[in-house]
């Protein structure tokens, strides 16, 4: 589960569910839509942006680029740098 920072969560932002399988990583968005994250998302740590209060993560999916914003800084960083050795 990728939970947003507590402040956006206070205003209703929902978490993104993360499923890792043998086929790869799949995200289930708040609206129920499922997207598959492509492996090249983890080859480029430039998709991780750290802001003043939140971090954001841009991943390449089977449906194009997807921005996951308002994350706690540690969440976005751990996904990109933790998964960079996979594959």
Tell me what the structure shows:
The structure is a single chain. This protein is α+β, with helices and mostly antiparallel strands and 87 residues long. It has three helices and six strands, in the order αβββαβββα. The strands form two sheets. Strands 1-2-3 form a three-stranded antiparallel beta sheet, with no helix packed on it. The protein has a three-stranded antiparallel beta sheet with strand order 4-5-6. The protein starts with 5 loop residues before the first helix and ends with a helix.
The total beta strand count reads: 6
**H-E order:** HEEEHEEEH
In which order are the strands of the major sheet placed?
1-2-3
Q: The biggest beta sheet, please? A: 3 strands, antiparallel
The best one-word shape is globular
Q: Approximately what portion of the residues adopt beta-strand conformation?
A: 35-45%
Radius of gyration, CA atoms, in whole angstroms:
12 Å
Helix count, per DSSP?
A: 3
Chain-averaged pLDDT: 77
Quick summary:
This protein is of the alpha+beta class. The protein contains 3 helices and 6 strands, in the order αβββαβββα. The mean pLDDT is 77.
Please describe the topology of this protein.
Layout: H1 6-10, E1 17-21, E2 24-28, E3 34-37, H2 40-43, E4 48-50, E5 55-61, E6 64-71, H3 73-83
Label this structure with key terms.
87 residues, alpha+beta, three-stranded antiparallel sheet, 6 strands, 23% helix
């Amino acid at each position: 589960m990728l939970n947003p920072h507590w402040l956006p969560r206070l205003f209703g932002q929902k978490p993104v569910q993360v499923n890792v399988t043998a086929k790869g990583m799949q995200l289930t968005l708040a609206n129920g839509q499922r997207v598959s994250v492509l492996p090249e998302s983890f080859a480029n740590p430039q998709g991780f942006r750290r802001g003043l209060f939140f971090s954001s993560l841009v991943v390449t999916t089977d449906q194009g680029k997807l921005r996951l914003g308002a994350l706690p800084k540690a969440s976005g960083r751990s996904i990109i740098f933790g998964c960079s050795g996979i594959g």
